[in-house]
Amino acid sequence: MTTDTATDQQALDELSINTIRTLSIDAVEKASSGHPGAPMALAPVAYELFARTMKHNPANPKWFDRDRFVLSAGHASMLLYSILHLSGYGVSMDDLKNFRQILSPTAGHPEYEAEGTPGVEITTGPLGQGISNAVGFALAERMLAARFNREGHEIIDHFTYSIASDGDMQEGIASEASSLAGHLGLGRLVVFYDDNEVQLAGPTSMGFSEDVGARYEAYGWHVQNLGEDLALDSLERAIEKAKGTQDRPSLIILRTHIGFGSPNKQDSQEAHGAALGEDEVRLTKEAYGWDPDAHFLVPDEVTERFAEVAERGRRAEEDWAQRLEDYRSAHPELAEPLSLVMESKLPTGWQEGRPRFDTSDDPIATRKASAKVIQWAAEKVPHLVSGSADLEPSTNTEIEDGGSVTRDDYSGRNVHYGVREHAMAAMVNALNLHGLRAFGSTFFNFVDYNKPSVRLAALMGLGVIHVYTHDSIGLGEDGPTHQPVEQLTALRATPNVNVVRPADANETALAWQFALEQDDGPCALVLSRQNLPILDPDLIPEHAISRGAYVLRREGREAGPEVILIGTGSEVSLCLEAAELLEGEGVATRVVSMPCYDRFIEADESYRDEVLPPACRARVSVEAGATFGWERWVTEDGASVGMHGFGASGPGPELYEHFGFTAQNIAGEARKVGERLSAAAKN
Ligand SMILES: Cc1ncc(C[n+]2csc(CCOP(=O)(O)OP(=O)(O)O)c2C)c(N)n1
Ligand SMILES: [Mg+2]
Q1: Which residue lies with its CA nearest to atom 19 of ligand 1?
Q2: From 4, 240, 345, 668, which residue has the greatest number of CB atoms within 10 Å?
Q3: DSSP SS3 for 383
Q4: Catalytic residues
Q5: Residues facing residue 619 across a β-bridge
């Protein structure tokens, strides 16, 4: 390259970077809301990644072997939208002009949807999530490489890049995930830390003074600090070094200036989360050598520059597609399992041979039944991957003979997340988005430790699964710190989550099948620690979970029930006992098992009326959790046996007595409801 062309190239790079900056500024200005400061500062990094470093094909954002990019600092969304637009992803100029408007693909924070904004790999915005998702993507890449790559066929061979801000670094989840990434030696992860010494409320010095680099070194990361040097060649050299360090994840620290180029707002929190204002925009554009009267301007040279990027990406994918064909003919036995991952699918006929438990079998905890079902599912679904936050001996979630995922061998099927529930859930989201059918597990009470990531899975419509055992006071002596009370209610209130609390081993088998079939929202499998009697499998319909509830015990008269007992999970058997007592007194009693409250809401009205005939208002719900929400099914005329405070430390069976979860008490509540209703009828 002659000096002249080098200078030309530099000028073109600079022009491209300023295009990212001004597009971001203009979009925020037009929306009168958003975050211009970070995109202005980080434009060189986005340009370096998308135009020079990353292996990606804008024409096919779903290319399987692409490098992944996660904008952990989701508030800087305009940085991503600008670079996606310029690179030729399906984000149009109109989309940029509609930044933050209803139904626009350029939402306030990047939102992933199956057929959503092209190039957005995962939803970010709640700080700390993205960097943890990036750890999950990097782990998925290694796990898939270990499964599928063969000598001379590196069919899975990509990197994960992320940009994280001060807020990301302050969040606990980032520490959890980064610690695990270091432990697992995820060398194909490259994170840029935007060390700009400013956050929303003011300078970071108000509440943040640790040495982030030293912290990441202690996690086992490779750390480089470029200071203020954001020259493209410096970035590129640092990235090359990071990529060359294959046994450790990399952190590249950049001392940037928020609101770069803005004469009055650079380095101030004022550039963080508000439009710069018309006058300041003019001054800033002038500082960039930009026409202050131009809006949403993309110079022709920049368009041409990115056309090269698109062309390079197209060729890269073409080359890979050829290699994939070669791979498939060299290893035909791997073609099918790889397709399942690439298409996030289950093998045809996988449901055959679902475990069945008999009434003559000993009572069994649903967590233990789940363990048996997991072995069956693991055999049928090769890309099923288990994991636990240090509780697999208790959640019974290990895939036997599946092996552990370690830094020396990623081919295992059990991920040991350590006591890092939040990072686990964020990583499970990414593992699933990368095609693995990964699930996490912990005690139900600790859903509070990972709920933010489960919520994002719900928002994204990801069919992730979480196994939550020790689901009530029934867990016993560990006491109220471990006994969930309000967790069922909280999860049920979260849109798009299927909360399944099976009543016995057979409902558990169905629940697993249901969970694995979900591909548009998460499923929480809420399981008991204590043993439960096995219900007659012939009484449990195939739609028991998908329709949410069913009649488990029919009343002993043609005219319909006088009383309906509605139970979930471990309380269903108690309802059956109570029904025997009531029926013995001549009260026609129906028992409804409701393993999935959420699904029952969505079931046809006619089906709901069949299960809960509107004429019968004497209804009692029984669940060892908060009663909040049960009015919906028992109506104002019914009653709810549930928890009205926290649990207590003591043996499980005694706690059940103590808190009124006995057949006698349930029957008593039903009688009271019946009496109240007949008294009202006489008045
Ligand atoms: C979990 C979470 N808490 C709070 C916020 C609101 N919020 C958005 S950005 C931000 C901090 C911004 O500081 P920094 O991360 O350094 O970004 P910068 O201003 O440097 O771009 C906060 C508190 C959030 N998005 N996520
Ligand atoms: Mg900051």
Answers
A1: 199
A2: 668
A3: coil
A4: 421
A5: 564
DSSP per residue over 612-625, as a string? S-TT---EEEEEEE
pLDDT for res 6: 83
Ligand 1, atom 20: nearest CA belongs to which residue? 199
Residues counted in the chain = 683
Residue 452 Cα distances to 93, 127, 256, 442, angstroms: 32, 10, 29, 15
Taking the C-alpha atoms of residue 236 and residue 251, their distance in angstroms, rounded to an integer, is: 14
Report pLDDT digits (tens) over 171-195. 999 999 999 999 999 999 999 999 9
Helix (H) or strand (E) holding 465: strand 465-469
> Counting atoms of ligand 1 from 1, which one is nearest the CA of 204?
16
Please give the distance, rounded to the nearest whole angstrom, from the Cα atom of residue 166 to the centre of ligand 2: 4
- Distances, alpha carbon 271 to alpha carbons 71, 129, 255, 283, in Å: 18, 23, 16, 14
| Shortest-distance atom of ligand 1 to CA 129 | 1
Closest CA to 166 of 120, 200, 129, 121: 200
- C-alpha 521/C-alpha 598 separation (Å) is 12
Question: Residues near ligand 1 with C-beta < 6 Å?
Answer: 37-38, 73, 75, 125-127, 165-167, 196, 198-200, 258, 272
Residues with C-beta atoms within 5 A of ion ligand 2: 165-166, 196, 198-199
Torsion angle of the four alpha carbons 388, 393, 397, 399, in this order, in degrees rounded to the nearest 10: 100
The domains located in the chain, with CATH, are 3-314 (3.40.50.970), 364-532 (3.40.50.970), 549-682 (3.40.50.920)
- Ligand 1, residue 258: give the atom nearest the CA: 20
> CB–CB of 590/561 below 8 Å?
yes
Residue nearest (by alpha carbon) to ligand 1 atom 25 = 126
CA distances (Å), origin 217, targets 100, 176, 214, 221, 672: 38, 14, 5, 5, 65
For residues 445 and 487, the answer to whether their CB atoms sit within 8 Å is yes
Work out the burial of residue 49: count CB atoms within 10 Å of its CB; fewer than 13 is exposed, 13-18 middle, 19 or more buried: buried
> What DSSP designation does 446 have?
G
Amino acid at site 510: L
Residue in 615, 668, 611 with CA at minimum distance from that of residue 637? 615
Q: Rounded to an integer, what distance in angstroms lies between the CA atom of residue 126 and that of residue 128? A: 7
Contact 188, 242 (CB under 8 A): no
Q: What is the pLDDT of residues 406-464, one digit of tens each?
A: 999 999 999 999 999 999 999 999 999 999 999 999 999 999 999 999 999 999 999 99
